[in-house]
Structure of Putative dehydrogenase:
Amino acid sequence: MSFQNKNSSKAYDVIIEGSGDGGGMASKILSEAGLSEAIVEEGCDFDAAIGHRDIDGETYTGKNGTELDWFLSRRKFLATTATLIASPLLLHIPVFAGNSDKKLRHVCVGVGGMGGHDLQRFIAHPDVEIVAICDVDDDRLQKAAELVPNARKYRDWRTLLKEESENFDSINVSVPDHNHFAVAISAIKMGKHVYCQKPMCHDVSEIRKLTNAAIKAGIVSQLGTQHASGKGDRTAVQWIKEGHIGKIKNVYLCSNRPGATEAYRFPGPRPVGGQDPPAGLDWNLWTGTAPLRPYNPTIYHPSKWRAWQDFGTGWSGDIGCHIFDAVWKGMGLQAPISVHARVQESWENSPERRADTWPQSNHLTWVFPGNEMTESEELTVEWFDGEFYPPEEVRALFSVENYPAESAMLVGTEGALLIPHTKLPVLLPESKFQQVQYPEMEERDHYHHFVDACLGKTKTESHFAQAGPMTEAIILGTVAIREPQKVLKWDAKKMKIPNHPEAEKYLSRKYRKGWEV
């Protein structure tokens, strides 16, 4: 395969090795181009992964000053490609030139809740050394320290990055959503590899910036969609690509987890006043980039922060990345054309709640450009949570009574595919697809795969070049939630909402003074 130098007719050869599950790697790019490594993803769509981002059209300068136009349009890409091997996609992410004989020196920012689980998974990898841990909550920090007694302890992640800058290779970001970007972008600027919990960031603009930064820096990245590495999601991706259900007509995503509303979604409005935080909790550090609100022991830390616009991204933002992942990968989706939200009526009619909280129920509708896998030129993808459910006729394709509370359903011209969250997918009607066997797949740990990628042994399943555009579409849904009943047209390249520019204020936010990044 060859790529053309932007300023000449000379083509640079790329020698591609390997194939099969997970794709191959481009092991060599001619020294004249000045680039040493690149990852090749097989079976992915060029436009879906990079065609819509604002980095399209940029040039990269090689070590000897040669400029390469990595972001050609799909048409130009194909025109200048001498040979297309299994429809590969060059993702311009350098492989970490790790030494497999050395351990990965890792730090953990956020070690309570999901962060505690993350820490345990990294500890379980034999080639990981936990150098330092960080948490604003002393109780959580001390419990984590019992697992890694040799790790240095920090309260402030900024201090950790400064004092440990030469002592670590990678970081996991497991703090509330509003601080994801600040921690992750700071680490990327240092050249560190990043594992970031979902959603990637709080705002659309942050996601775009973080995606671009990770690509430019050439670091290894992984979004915390741990089930993306599981057999269920990987089987679903394979079956979608194999086309068992024909052309895709519609997609229905849902998360109606029992008890979630009570556990995570504070109805609001915000209580008046507050109280002093406990001695072991640094509320200023916990708040970070967000506005400093009075502390309240029952509505923020440790779990209900997700309900607040200052800190979380609502239920669709929190869980959407899990449910959407296999669909996005399998279909090779691009940025949406539009998004629309229908929300809980009591929330929509309450100015106080709309100013602060996320609704307890949402129904989102995205319209995506169609592709070779869709029945028409556009594809509608719907999301349901809380009091909203997929249509009964859709649930009846499996079972209205036993329909999985968290799942994706793809309806095609020749059948349907149900992807229950954390479980194996099902082709429907089952009687029609009895001959389709579950593929043989090795067990894969999402965290360990990240570690192995950092050590140069493989590539990640949910790197930011893939997960960024998906998360961007999901978080664009939270913009629609704040402007319910409006169809928001989306210009992904310009990052504009041309028919409702008043909604663009929700694409980014102003950081608290002293927390700018």
Remarks:
- The radius of gyration is 23 Å.
- The longest strand covers residues 248-255.
